Amino acid sequence: MKKALITGINGQDGSYLAEFLLDKGYEVWGILKRNSVAENQTYRLNDIYGHERLKLAYADMLDMASLIQVLQKAQPCEIYNLAAQSHVRISFDQPIYTAQVTGMGTLNLLEAVRLTCPDARIYQASSSEMFGNNIDADGYQRETTPMNPVSPYGCAKVFSYNICRNYRNSYKMYISNGILFNHESPRRGVNFVTNKVAKEAVRIKLGYTDKLVLGNTQATRDWGHAKDYVRAMWMILQHEQADDFVCATGISHSVQYLVDYVFDRLGLDTETQLTTSERYFRPEELHDLKGDAGKAKELLGWTPEYSFEQMMDEMVDHWFDFYEKNPNIRS
């Protein structure tokens, strides 16, 4: 039986990846960061919590001793590093914490793996935010596009990306970077724009609120479904050689298009029910992201299955279902 360890298992990607690996017969270990409201830590894992092949352990990316302890217990053959402070706007408010967890946390994990199970294959969750506003002449970003991040989060991810490449070359460890573009789902945090739009639009439709407040609606992003992207993570680690891969749909939409699509579906009016606030703008904006996943398609055979519209429909349906099942909750 293969064993996998997932850091950040209780996040959007971690929960989908855990389900995916359990379906493939893996024993899955997951690292949780302890917080004071323990029952909230595993809500994304509710459907698989208690599964006989799911093992959860407390550790922290800034505490290498705790990482070593879990690695010694699990003895994984595959490690997926998904743990991070992953909200870009919040990284401006907490730049030092973001750099420590998202950057130095990766180095702690690599060193812990080197000391305990150096033959394990490691997947590093890299990000399209690393490119910043650099874009190739054809309008796409790919593995060779220069990286020039415009947020503390993006800067921390560039460090993680490079230290993974350094360990791969220096110690001949199997470490691959998945440069993932934006990916969403009903499990996405509601402080991320896709799920914020889906939730607030449903609340407007139900009469719980009367307005959606956003930041920069002209920014464009390449949005895909998290289920497609966790499948890519696994495929990356099955490749015979460690390498770096962009995963993206190759289609970008503006935040305004996102709002228009959801509002049109629900019969809402962007003129009267949408507004913007400086509170949600970044100090330095990232304007456009659109990825070229040609390498992943050619070498791994990966292609996304969800369209943007299918993804947003699923998220809107999720919130209608949520409020139908919880009629006393209006927030």
UniProtKB/TrEMBL annotation:
CDD domains: GDP_MD_SDR_e. It catalyses: GDP-alpha-D-mannose = GDP-4-dehydro-alpha-D-rhamnose + H2O. Keywords: Lyase, NADP. Residues 5-315 form the NAD(P)-binding domain. Its EC number is 4.2.1.47. One of its GO terms (molecular function) is GDP-mannose 4,6-dehydratase activity. It comes from the Bacteria. GO terms for biological process: 'de novo' GDP-L-fucose biosynthetic process. InterPro entries: GDP_Man_deHydtase, NAD(P)-bd_dom, NAD(P)-bd_dom_sf. Gene3D superfamilies: NAD(P)-binding Rossmann-like Domain (3.40.50.720), UDP-galactose 4-epimerase, domain 1 (3.90.25.10). Its cofactor is NADP(+). Catalyzes the conversion of GDP-D-mannose to GDP-4-dehydro-6-deoxy-D-mannose. Belongs to the NAD(P)-dependent epimerase/dehydratase family. GDP-mannose 4,6-dehydratase subfamily. HAMAP family: GDP_Man_dehydratase. This is GDP-mannose 4,6-dehydratase.
